[in-house]
Amino acid sequence: MSRRARAVGFLLAALFAAAAAAAVADRYGARATAGYGKLRPVLVAASELRRGRPIDAGLAARLEVRRVPARFVPPGALSRPAEAVGLAPTAAVPAGAYLLAAQLRPPRVAGPILDRGRRPVEIAVSGAGALALGGRRPAGARVDVVVTTEPGGSGRGRTYVAAAAVPLLALASSTDEPGGTAAATLGLTRAEALRLIAAQSFARRVTVLATG
User: Fold this and answer.
1) Domains in the chain, please, with CATH?
2) CA–CA gap between residue 57 and residue 47 (Å, rounded)
3) Bridging pattern class, strands 159-173 and 39-45
4) Which is the most buried residue in 20, 86, 167, 209, by most CB within 10 A?
5) What SS3 class is residue 1?
6) Residue 152: helix, strand or coil by DSSP?
7) What would you report as the CA-atom Rg of the chain, rounded to the nearest whole angstrom?
């Protein structure tokens, strides 16, 4: 047999061996997929996540997405960093651990402590949108509640402070229109609450103004 024929023979043998190896690998991969399931993306903590620390965009960028067989994916495992943004671990998550939905909760926001004799009361108010200007968070601020009455007969209506420097606990807009009303939860004494509840039935406008 000539040298060229031997070279061709070796080349054909090598190609056959490569094809056989690829076929074996494909069969093994198919069996593995059938046994363990398809690969799924799973979110993994690249570094330890501390308990109670909210996951912001910076921390989310350090989370890793790995693909593992479905059989090994724990229930509730997250698959994308965006799913964890804004949440905080209820316990420390070690580096390399899967990130589960059950491990995360919205961060606790400490609200103002009410003085003795004050209770949360919800009042419909106007002018609340101005409290959030400049990126400020209205909840937790102190506000004055101003009542403007309807004119009576030939007399003019009057405007007065019905509750001064009371804590604003929460604010929820009830309309998308500028200057619309909002539901303000205020920390009021009993006398202030009764005065404002009564004012809502006859006043033209109840407004909240930031103190200071």
Assistant:
1) 39-105 (3.90.1210.10), 119-210 (no CATH)
2) 15
3) unpaired
4) 167
5) coil
6) coil
7) 33
CB atoms within 10 A of CB 74: 10
Q: What was the pLDDT predicted at 176? A: 44
The mean pLDDT value for 114-129 works out to: 84
Each residue's pLDDT tens digit, 62-107: 899 999 888 888 888 999 888 888 888 999 999 999 999 889 988 7
Poorest-confidence range of 64-68, 108-112, 154-158? 108-112
- Give the angle 73-78-84 at the CA atoms, nearest 5°: 155
Residue partners of 172: CB distance under 8 A and separation at least 6: 182, 183
**Mean confidence (pLDDT) of the chain:** 79
The DSSP code sequence of 56-110 is: -HHHHTTEEEEEEEGGGPPTTB--SGGGTTT-EESS-B-TTPBPBGGGEEPPP-P
73, exposed or middle or buried, with CB in 10 Å at 0-12, 13-18, 19+? middle
Per-residue tokens: 152: 């009576």
* DSSP states along 144-206: EEEEEEPP-TTSPP-EEEEEEEEEEEEEEES-SSTT--EEEEEEE-HHHHHHHHHHHHHEEEE
Q: What is the DSSP string of 105-125?
A: EPPP-PPPPPPTT-EEEEEEE
CA–CA dist 106, 87 (Å, integer):
5
CB 72 within 8 Å of CB 36: yes
For residue 154, what are its two tokens? 């030939």
